[in-house]
Write a structure and sequence with these properties.
226 residues; alpha/beta; Rossmann fold; 2 domains; 6-stranded parallel sheet; two-stranded antiparallel sheet; 8 strands; globular; binds magnesium ion
């Protein structure tokens, strides 16, 4: 079995600028009574658990564990906003997911800093949920409520999936690229996010500007040859 683990933001979908922060502002106000938002910290490709704690710390609120209601409220506000401004599915993503979902040796999972609720809000809005939903109707993968550090997420996944299973990571972030390299996991990187192709090329031989035109077929080929 090959587990192909997809990041969400700027790898599969792109969300209107400012929407995530705006939704977080409502969550911080409603759940913690704080006037702040996620952009007050360096939130890029961080986990939701880390972001919520770091932002609250800045306004003098200390918490050990993020309450579930915070994740759920952030997701609900995101879902409402996405109804007016749906995410954009990035080039070649539907083609890749369609092709891989037909391969019995492949299982698609998420590896994302989003909580499962916010991940669902983002990919449900554009009908990508079907590829990541298991028979018990849960999203497969590891999520931003499971650890403070993104690097920890892949370790959690590995512990759950022992044996000869292979893993490949599809991501746009530097943290994701480093995590894959440090843990000796092959990666397929895409520069549709903030990190330029030249930077990502330091971490993987499989780097794409995007998966459009025929490039998605190359991704299928790389995974088939693992
Ligand atoms: Mg990303």
């Amino acid at each position: 079995m090959i587990h192909v683990m997809f990041d969400i933001d700027e790898t599969m979908v792109s969300i209107k600028r400012g929407l995530n922060a705006k939704a977080s502002r409502l969550m911080f106000k409603n759940v913690f009574g704080a006037d702040t938002d996620e952009e007050t910290v360096d939130n890029f490709s961080k986990t939701e658990s880390w972001i919520i704690k770091a932002v609250l710390d800045k306004v003098g609120i200390k918490i050990d564990r993020v309450p579930e209601t915070a994740y759920k409220t952030w997701a609900e506000e995101t879902l409402k906003m996405l109804a007016d401004d749906p995410p954009k599915v990035l080039p070649g993503i539907r083609e890749i997911l369609d092709a891989l979902s037909k391969n019995e040796n492949v299982q698609l999972s998420l590896l994302t800093g989003n909580s499962p609720w916010r991940a669902d809000a983002k990919i449900h809005a554009v009908n990508l949920c079907q590829y990541f939903t298991s028979q018990d109707h849960q999203l497969r993968g590891v999520f931003g409520d499971m650890a403070d550090e993104r690097e920890e997420l892949i370790k959690i996944f590995k512990r759950k999936n022992k044996g000869d299973d292979k893993i490949v990571i599809v991501d746009d972030s530097l943290i994701g690229a480093k995590m894959a390299k440090d843990q000796n996991i092959p990666s397929i990187l895409v520069s549709t996010g903030k990190i330029p192709k030249s930077e990502l090329e330091k971490y993987s031989e499989n780097v794409f500007a995007d998966f459009g035109e025929n490039r998605w077929e190359k991704v299928i080929g790389i995974i088939g040859n693992l």
